[in-house]
């Protein structure tokens, strides 16, 4: 057989990597070495590795958003009287795939 990866796992990895690299998380993940080892987070010469990996992840997420275009309508309303103008209402219900079912299958079959 051929080695493969399920795309959702790769995209979740990318989201997690970008989350870890945010300014409010960076010190924690440098210390604990999650996704990258502590030496990679701390070594100046490895910044290019982290930057290249982050750029790859942003590009993968961009392609996913553009290829699986979500054209649901996001309504606007006056949610906060302190805001100037209507705000987007993101809490709309949607029908999602059953991720838990997928994850159980993945754990059983990896």
TrEMBL record:
The pathway entry for this protein reads as:
Mycotoxin biosynthesis
Q: Which domain of life is it from?
A: Eukaryota
What Pfam families does the annotation carry? UstYa
Known InterPro entries for this protein? UstYa-like
The record's section on PANTHER family has:
CYCLOCHLOROTINE BIOSYNTHESIS PROTEIN O (PTHR33365:SF4), YALI0B05434P (PTHR33365)
Regarding protein family, the annotation reads:
Belongs to the ustYa family.
> What is the name attached to this protein's record?
Uncharacterized protein
State the species of origin.
Answer: Zymoseptoria tritici (strain CBS 115943 / IPO323) (Speckled leaf blotch fungus)
């Amino acid at each position: 057989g051929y080695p493969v990866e399920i795309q959702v796992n790769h995209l979740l990895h990318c989201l997690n990597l970008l989350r870890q690299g945010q300014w409010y998380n960076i010190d924690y993940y440098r210390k604990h070495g999650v996704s990258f080892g502590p030496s990679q987070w701390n070594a100046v010469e490895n910044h290019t590795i982290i930057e290249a990996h982050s750029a790859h992840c942003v590009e993968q997420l961009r392609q996913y958003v553009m290829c699986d275009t979500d054209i649901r309508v996001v309504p606007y309303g006056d949610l906060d009287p302190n805001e100037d103008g209507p705000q987007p209402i993101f809490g709309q219900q949607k029908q999602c795939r059953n991720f838990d079912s997928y994850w159980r299958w993945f754990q059983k079959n990896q």
